[in-house]
Amino acid sequence: MTKSLLFIASLLFILTSCKEGSVDKTERSGEPDVYNVEDDNAKMNQAMVNAKNSIDEFKNALASDNPSFEYFTIKQKFNADGGAEHIWVGDIQLIDNDFMGIVANEPVYTSEVKLGDTITVNSANISDWMYYDDGEVVGGYTIRVIRDALSPEEQAQFDAENGLLFK
């Protein structure tokens, strides 16, 4: 569990969670920044649709017990004052066709969950998923939207700081 939580903490240097309805960045002392994305952002909304439409790929990979696959995480939308907050849930397990995991980010806007809570993921509120396949990111649709908006230099820095390899 600790290894996965450390991975998620380092992974989310740029995108810890998203709050719908705004465009600014929330900086937190000792925590990764949170980038707020407008709820009508077409690229982000399409990324969330793509994630939902491909959740079976994630489920099959999780159930495969492939030793090359690791760090399974799901991003879930939670209600927050004035909108919603999307938070990563790590250490994902599939139990009776439900995803269960541990809240891996310190919430900024929602009081529905807190860091370290064990939850059953609400499938209707999944906004992203990802895992590593031999060190390469699979999924991570919303992360890719943020990453794609960076300059090539910023992308290289982001990848190096977080150990990310994108296919």
Proportion of β residues? 25-35%
User: What level of helicity do the residues show?
Assistant: 25-40%
The domain count comes to 1
- The topology string of helices and strands comes to HEEEHHEEEEEEHH
InterPro entries: DUF2314 (IPR018756)
Pfam family, one: DUF2314
Give a description of the structure:
The protein is an alpha+beta fold and 167 residues long. It has one domain. Helix content is 31%, strand content 35%. The strands form 2 sheets. Strands 1, 4, 5, 6, 7, 8 and 9 form a 7-stranded antiparallel beta sheet that branches. Strands 2-3 form a two-stranded antiparallel sheet. It starts with a helix and ends in a 5-residue tail after the last helix. Mean pLDDT is 82; it is low at 1-23.
Write the layout of secondary structure elements.
Elements (H helix, E strand, L loop, with lengths): L1 H10 L5 E3 L5 E4 L2 E5 L6 H12 L1 H10 L4 E12 L2 E13 L2 E6 L14 E3 L5 E8 L2 E4 L1 H8 L3 H11 L5
Antiparallel strand pairs: 1-5, 2-3, 4-5, 4-8, 5-6, 6-7, 8-9
